[in-house]
Amino acid sequence: MKRSEINQALKNMEEMIRKCGFHLPPFCDFTPDEWKEKGHEYDEIRDNMLGWDITDYGLGNFKKIGFSLITLRNGNTHMDKYKKTYAEKLLYLEEDQSATMHFHWTKMEDIINRGGGNVLIRVYNSKEDGSFDDTDVTIHSDGREYTVPAGTQIRLTPGESITVYPYMYHDFEVEKGSGAVLLGEVSMCNDDNTDNRFYEPMGRFPEIEEDEAPYRLLCNEYPPAP
């Protein structure tokens, strides 16, 4: 992706967050120059990859496959100094964007529609070999338990949520005609390096073409503390 595309995507997400009346923590406003001066008191942000993020799964088609996100809080299963057992994110999808089919080996999460349009989340159980299971999927959504056939898309309108369990395959897309969506994610600790199982092998972070200066640093771009 071009840096200019990333900058615009982050600005679009900021605008959506304002429309939904959500307020971000101060570190989300740090400029790249300000990050050069931030000392070890901000190591939790660096070590746990808090802050702005972009994924195109390494496919180079962000307008269709990928989305913008912010990790607001997170623990760390690899560093004993961080005691949080939970994480929280915001995800932003334009109407034509989608997330690819995947599950998490360990993480359980709630996906919440925080505002905007409607999101469609397709679900499958998985087999031991990582293939789709054709058995019915048990859904837990806002205090309601029910089952759906494998491959069903669960429709979440603003305010609604779904619990995604380990080994439950899921993807998501915005319902056509409903507009961009701001999603929340409340989960166990997030570890994108070891806990994602994509149905089709793919990457996580985009390759960046530096055609302009960064508006914000992404969570994998912070400089070390001075």
Our Rg estimate from Cα atoms comes to 17 Å
CA(first)-CA(last) distance = 29 Å
Q: Please give the count of helices.
A: 3
Note the beta-strand portion.
35-45%
- Provide the low-confidence segments as ranges: none
Strands in their spatial order, largest beta sheet: 1-2-3-13-5-11
Biggest beta sheet summary: 6 strands, antiparallel
Share in helix = 10-25%
Inertia-based shape: globular
The number of strands is 14
Broad structural category = mainly beta
Mean pLDDT over the residues: 96
- Element-level helix/strand string: HHHEEEEEEEEEEEEEE
Protein described:
The protein is mainly beta and 226 residues long. It has helices at 3-19, 32-35, 43-47, and strands at residues 51-55, 67-74, 86-93, 98-104, 109-116, 119-126, 132-133, 137-141, 144-148, 153-156, 161-164, 168-174, 181-188, 196-198. It comes from Sellimonas catena.
Characteristic terms for this protein:
single chain; mainly beta; six-stranded antiparallel β-sheet; globular; metal-binding; isomerase; EC 5.3.1.15
How would you briefly describe this protein structure?
12% of the residues lie in helices and 36% in strands. The protein is mainly beta. Strands 1-2-3-13-5-11 form a six-stranded antiparallel β-sheet, covered by helices on one side.
